[in-house]
Every structure is written in C-alpha cells, then in structure tokens.
C-alpha cells in the first residue's frame, strides 16, 4: 500500500513539473530590419537587451522567497515559481517592446519581419506624400 501511495505521489509531482516544450523564440525589430545585415543594429540590440535584462533582474530581486512544507507545499511553490517566471518574461518583453522589438516564435520571425518592413514602407510613402 505504501508503495502504491509513493508511486501515486511521484506521478502527481511529475505531472505538475513537466511542461510541454515551447518553440524557440527570437526577437524581431518592429521596423523589420535585421541586425545580421546591419552591424550597428546588432550592437544596439545587445545594448537594449542588456538594459532590459537589468530591469528584469531588479524586479526579481524584489521578490520574496518561497517557503513551503511537504508535498502540497512543494506543488504550490512550483506553481508560484512558474507565475514569477511568466511575470519576469513579461517585464523583459515590455522593456524590449519599448525599444522596438517583439518576441515571436522562431518559425514566425521572417514573416513578422516582412510584415513590419511592409508597414514601415507604407508609413514612409504616406509621410513622403504628406510632405509634398
């Protein structure tokens, strides 16, 4: 009976801890330009990313430690830790958005950049017509 209970608890914990794999994500500039083609943009990306990581770390430092007891406490602590991870991801995404980047699945990066380039081109054309 004790073995069955231990197996059950192990299965429950394994189910709580395992998450489906997420597709790799990448940063895309909102003007559609690629840092790989323009060295100055690559340098600016590294600066922006470093600043935003610092903002995220400042947020993480202010988080209270998680204390727990027993299996139920461990499960709850794991849930809280996952929520914190999501919150920190939102902090860096918001910071990078302010600097002109979006975080997209790698499979959608080229299409997203293409849409941004088209939108930037349309804005430039409208601005040129307005000036005339």
Mean pLDDT: 83
Strand content: 5-15%
Radius of gyration: 22 Å
Q: How many DSSP-defined strands?
A: 2
Q: Which shape, going by the Cα principal axes?
A: elongated
Order of helices and strands: HEHHEH
The share of residues in helices is: 55-70%
Question: What does the largest sheet look like?
Answer: 2 strands, antiparallel
Note poorly predicted spans.
4-12
Output the strand order for the largest sheet. 1-2
Figure out the total of helices: 4
End-to-end Cα distance, whole Å, is: 84 Å
Structural class: mainly alpha
How would you portray this structure in words?
The chain is mainly alpha-helical. The protein has a domain at 23-63 and 90-131. The chain contains 4 helices and 2 strands; from the N terminus they run H-E-H-H-E-H. The protein has helices spanning 2-17, 39-61, 70-98, 109-131, and strands spanning 25-29, 101-105. A two-stranded antiparallel sheet has the order 1-2. The longest helix has 29 residues, at 70-98. It is elongated. The N and C termini lie far apart (84 Å).
